[in-house]
Amino acid sequence: LDNMKMVSIWFATLLAVFLSYRANATYNGIGLKPPMGWNGVYHFFCRPGTNENVIRGTVDALISTGLSKVGYEYVNIDDCWGEKHRDAQGNLLAKAKTFPSGIKALADYVHSKGLKLGIYADAGSQTCSTRMQGSIGHEEQDAITFASWGIDYLKYYSCYIPEFRPRERFQKMSEALRKTGRPIFFSTGIWYDEQDYINAGPKIANSWRTTSDDFQDKFEYMVQVADQNDHFAPYAGPARGWNDPDVLLVGNGLMTTEEYRSQFSIWALMKAPLLITSDIRNASKETLEILGNNEVIDVNQDSLGVQGKKVSKQGDLEVWAGPLSNKRVTVVLWNRSNSTASITAKWEDIGLSSKAGVQARDLWAHSYLPTTLQGSLSSSVDSHACK
Fold first, then answer.
1. For site-directed labelling of 39, which of 213, 242, 256, 281 has its Cα 20 to 30 A away?
2. CA distance 278 to 290
């Protein structure tokens, strides 16, 4: 048996039989791994902080904190970046008060630092905030605008769509982006029809939301979102696209360090986009330690690209697991209860032979467990924490 490292008692071991998943290509040839970066939607949404100085400062912080070195490369502007109305030619305009240099100049700055710039638009008549016009009927025009500015990532939602046909509207923008010839990661809102996640998503987008926008910096909401995203696990992968359960709330201050560590662990296991939404210019040491854990990030960015799932539960005590490349498996023991408890992962639940001897690595402690494990792994886990 080979030894391998895994995560937070997400752990390291050898799969006797593992899922073979080969990546060919996404619909536009990019996004073979979940995207990593920053989006200020939670911390700055449509507030005065949505401005070019914050974006530049965030770029600088990604570099100075070392987060860019572990993979965070996109810096994404969310809603309210533009004027309420288009110009006389029908073009979207950056808001003069908050982005006086324009988006092109901002993109040039981001690119000069080795990072990439993302932006937000909507498939309907106006954006979700109602403070900007949407792209319906302007898909090709807006795609050309985004490409000319040097945009690398488009977050595209579905507010205010007539007759509410997100698939049709998402496809229009997808085709328009491809026509520009610029590689732009295309991230859509919710599809609503489950068949679209199976059939349409991989042909149209690189990632898609699986949950509503009612995401709050509270443990109970994060748990619900994780469960909702878990349902869509079969539909994600490097040759398809990525299920998006929304942003990483780590560092916003309303959850505990253990709760934030749990979100980061589960999001990484689920191969979710890792998009920070706190103010990293003022990030604490604990926040940076969570977001910068390269061993957990490696799980998220693993080339096999198979979304991990909840594999067993007893009340609020859960085991999540998924295969990695090189015949490895990663496991999370997650205690959702209000008291410390012991959780056990049985080999048969995580895809291992019951007779397998396992070398396990704790990816939060960055160390191997001292003994070879047989049949199962058990550990005491604090309330709302994971191992």
1. 256
2. 13
